[in-house]
Write a structure and sequence with these properties.
Distance between the termini of chain A: 10 Å
Mean pLDDT of chain B: 92
Shape of chain A: globular
Largest sheet of chain A: none
Largest sheet of chain B: 11 strands, mixed
Largest interface: A-B, 70 and 77 residues
Helix content of chain A: over 70%
Low-confidence stretches of chain A: none
Distance between the termini of chain B: 59 Å
Oligomer: heterodimer
Number of helices of chain A: 14
Structural class of chain A: mainly alpha
Radius of gyration of chain B: 26 Å
Mean pLDDT of chain A: 89
Number of strands of chain B: 19
């Protein structure tokens, strides 16, 4: 049974990725602008342009180009980036860890912050405190991640310059890493000064990404908790003399968390999408920042690789969320 | 087991926070042996001769730090010896000679040789090698090395080839090392003969360079140079304002004016070899000379520069900026709205019955590009021209221009760091160039012979005459020469570069 479910999800994922591959390949060729026109010199002749097209494999018929690319993808070869002169697979592998560390940290912050505010709001329901929390949360919801990023820049990099603004680590510390997971590696190898430096670089982009998601979590979880708090099992626990905090954490939270978890999963994909702008503002060297340059330069192989990677990440997140929700919800688990 | 009190937990949190943030408080200290530059573009590739980044003018400052060019270029665009100490033509221009600098070593300690020069030119000239200006280098062939002198046959005469040796893709790479490590290996560990050596690199984040102690031009002023790739202008402003970077460039003029007088900071603005212009395509209604000339006379460039660019910029009437060879200040296309209205009236147009067309522009690609076009459209409306604005991405502009499908008018910026008229008027106006918009036989007849003109004086005068003819015919609408704002810490001295390349070697301690 479980095997069939997993096999079905994997098949669907592969089908989705194949669709993404076709769409991105066609779109890139339809949208105006190609890498050759971006770089060709004004003095070039038709023959020079043809030679450049041949050099980058853009002279073949579209179907042939697609076949060559997709045959490579199947074997793990995504081609060579036109602008970076490096294998796309290698580039993606070197940039993905930075985005993953940032996104996971932002998710953790969003869940913790959103969870705590939601619980506090539930505890303070029908008081002035709840009104304040709802008001602040509305502001958090209304402001998009890139505005948070700019506000944080002005606050912590200009007005009170206490945080580093750009990069992933101070350039003088960036050495001797065996992997590209700088934060995880520095913690695991006990280099806490380096880890602190990396975290200091991540605070602003993490907050910019986390605050809007935290607001979504607050709104949904608080509503779910409020509904749970009037259920019979909570009333029974209250009659037994449980304190309010225990009622929320022990009785209501477990039943209220399901819808929030499902929505957080969906929102996490938006958070990953948000890295494109946020990484740019903070010059954070992840796949988001890479994507902007790839699009500006019309680096076809790199854009195609990035879109497939984003697609794969979204699919994996959705699968992960589905399994997590099923695990937490006995009715879904048994069905 | 141990117990942590609330007070202890609070103290520990404070300690961690201090560890995270306190080191940054020293970021605004005086410049030491490390120069931090908040740079406006990312460095995609270390190969200065291949691919899109090789022809990106903004990246040249980084390439010039690591590699040397055949011919050097001073900040005022004049030329000086680089890895070639001398160069020239045979009397009949059928051969070139180049003398190679001696006692130069690559960053790995191996000697630089004339073979490196020959191999580099041949590599750059391969038609299928990925060099976007391969046709320039392919004009030389049959190289012979005699001691430190190289002699080559001229396959196709190009009067500006030695100027190109100080321009895009004119870099010398290490033959033996490159052949040993291959293109991918070179990207991972590039070496050159330049003043700085690559020490660490993280794409989209930073490039850390170390001074080359054996540099033939003397030891560079800073031990370490860090290029921080900060693509966002707001972030660059924050970098310099917070003291995290020592120098930055290309910030909004409003921010430049705000910060240049701030304690601890200085600013300089220099006109650079980058101009703003409006291409005119030879389609209706631009086939009417009166319409073209009216477009040109109706634009008050000085007001645009004053109001939109805070006075930073130089109005131009030809595609040549004052620093270029062949620039003639007597060629004028004055602001004269009355004349513009009269010209339009002669063709049957007026404010009530305006001539209509579309003008294309980028938005945010260059400072105030869209706002400038809005202002120009407003000025045109006052004389009887009704233009619709269409915005597009720069990539679309390139593709449309290459296929000769631009709208009747299209805004663009044109760089020309070697200051020769062929690389501005020539390539922008000759119909055989894939980047020209106006195609007409009369203009081609005037430009054509200049490509092969062997008398330098006649060649430059020829381009000046072409510029005068273009102005009289209204074949293009030159607008302004851009000015580059640079902000830096007050204990530094920055020598502005007219080419726009902010090279670390042009920054020193005051």
């Amino acid at each position: 049974m479980l095997f069939a479910v997993v096999a079905n999800r994997v098949a669907m994922a592969l089908l989705t990725l194949a669709g993404v591959a076709v769409v991105v390949f066609i779109l890139l060729r339809v949208v105006p602008g190609d890498p050759i026109s971006m770089m060709i010199s004004p003095g070039a002749t038709e023959a020079d342009i043809a030679a450049l097209k041949a050099h980058y494999g853009l002279d073949a018929p579209l179907l042939t180009q697609f076949w060559i690319w997709i045959a490579g993808v199947v074997t793990g070869d995504f081609g060579t980036s036109i602008t970076l002169h490096r294998y796309v697979t290698e580039v993606l592998a070197s940039r993905l860890p930075a985005t993953l560390e940032l996104a996971i940290l932002a998710l953790l912050v969003a869940v913790l912050l959103g969870g705590m505010i939601a619980i506090a709001g539930t505890l303070m329901r029908r008081t002035a405190g709840e009104t304040v929390i709802d008001g602040l949360n509305s502001i958090l919801l209304a402001v998009p991640d890139f505005i948070w990023a700019l506000a944080l820049v002005l606050l912590f990099a200009v007005a009170i310059p206490v945080l580093p603004l750009t990069g992933r680590i101070d350039p003088e510390l960036a050495e001797d890493f065996a992997t590209k997971f700088y934060l995880a590696e520095s913690i695991l190898t006990g280099r806490f000064a380096v880890a602190a430096n990396i975290v200091s670089h991540m605070i602003m982009p993490t907050l910019a990404l986390a605050l809007p998601l935290a607001a979504v979590i607050v709104r949904l979880l608080k509503q779910s908790l409020k509904e749970a708090m009037v259920q019979d099992y909570v009333l029974l626990a209250r009659i037994k003399g449980f304190r309010e905090l225990r009622l929320v954490l022990q009785e209501a939270l477990r039943n209220a968390v399901g819808p929030t978890l499902a929505l957080t999963g969906v929102q996490f994909t938006f958070l990953i999408g948000g890295t494109v702008i946020v990484e740019r503002i903070f010059s954070y060297p992840g796949i988001g920042n890479l994507a902007i340059d790839a699009v500006i330069n019309r680096d076809f192989p790199l854009i195609q690789g990035l879109v497939l990677l984003f697609g794969l990440i979204f699919i994996l997140i959705n699968i992960g969320v589905d399994f997590a929700v099923a695990t937490l919800n006995p009715r879904l688990r048994h069905s | 087991m141990f117990n942590v009190t609330r007070r202890q937990a609070f103290a520990a949190s404070g300690g961690l926070l201090s560890t995270l943030i306190l080191p940054q408080r020293f970021a605004s200290a005086a410049v030491g042996n490390t120069l931090n530059i908040a740079y406006n573009v990312n460095l995609p590739s270390f190969d200065p001769d291949i691919g899109p980044s090789s022809v990106n003018p903004t990246i040249q400052a980084i390439y010039r730090s690591i590699f040397d060019q055949y011919v050097g270029q001073k900040p005022n665009l004049s030329f000086e010896p680089g890895l070639l100490t001398g160069w020239g033509w045979s009397d009949d221009k059928s051969k070139v000679w180049m003398d190679v600098r001696e006692n130069v070593v690559w960053h790995d300690g191996s000697p630089f040789t004339p073979e490196d020069v020959v191999w580099s030119i041949q590599r750059e000239g391969k038609p299928d090698g990925g060099n976007p200006v391969a046709f320039i280098w392919a004009g030389l062939d049959n190289f012979k090395i005699d001691g430190k002198r190289i002699i080559a046959d001229v396959k196709q005469y190009d009067p500006v080839i030695f100027k190109w040796m100080a321009f895009l893709t004119g870099y010398v790479l290490p033959k033996a090392y490159y052949e040993k490590v291959g293109p991918q290996g070179f990207e991972k560990k590039p070496i050159g003969t330049g003043p700085y050596m690559v020490d660490a690199y993280e794409g989209n984040a930073y490039l850390r360079l170390k001074a080359n102690p054996k540099y033939w031009g003397g030891k560079p002023p800073f031990e370490t140079v860090v290029f921080k790739f900060v693509g966002d202008a707001t972030s660059r402003v924050a970098e310099i304002e917070s003291g995290s970077s020592d120098v930055t460039l290309e910030v909004p003029y409003e921010e430049f004016d705000r910060l240049k007088g701030k304690a601890g900071l200085k600013g300089v603005v220099t006109p650079i070899s980058d101009i703003g212009m409006i291409f005119i395509t030879n389609i209706e209604p631009m086939l009417d000379k009166n319409v073209r000339l009216a477009m040109c006379h109706a634009v008050d460039k000085q007001t645009i520069i004053k109001r939109l660019l805070r006075g930073y910029g130089v109005a131009i009437d030809t595609l040549l900026a004052p620093e270029y060879a062949g620039f003639d200040p007597s060629i004028k296309v004055p602001y004269d709205p009355a004349l513009a209205a009269k010209l339009l009236a002669a063709s049957g147009f007026s404010k009530e019955k305006p001539v209509k067309f579309t003008i294309q522009t980028t938005r945010g690609f260059k400072p105030k590009d869209y706002e400038m076009i809005q202002a120009i459209v407003g000025m045109w409306r006052n004389v009887g021209i009704d233009a619709d604005i269409e915005t597009y991405e720069i990539a679309k502009h390139f593709e449309l221009r290459m296929s000769h499908k631009l709208a009747p008018a299209a805004f663009y910026n044109w760089g020309n760091a070697i200051g020769d008229p062929t690389t501005s008027t020539g390539f922008a106006m000759f119909s055989k160039s894939p980047h020209s918009a106006w195609h007409s036989d009369d203009l081609d007849a005037k430009i054509g012979p200049l490509w092969g003109e062997k008398d330098e004086k006649k060649r430059i005068q020829g381009w000046t005459d072409v510029d005068r003819y273009i102005a009289e015919q209204g074949y293009v609408l030159p607008l302004l020469q851009y000015a580059q704002p640079i902000l830096y810490k007050s204990d530094l001295k920055v020598t502005p570069n007219v080419s726009g390349a902010l090279q670390p070697t042009l920054v020193a301690k005051a």
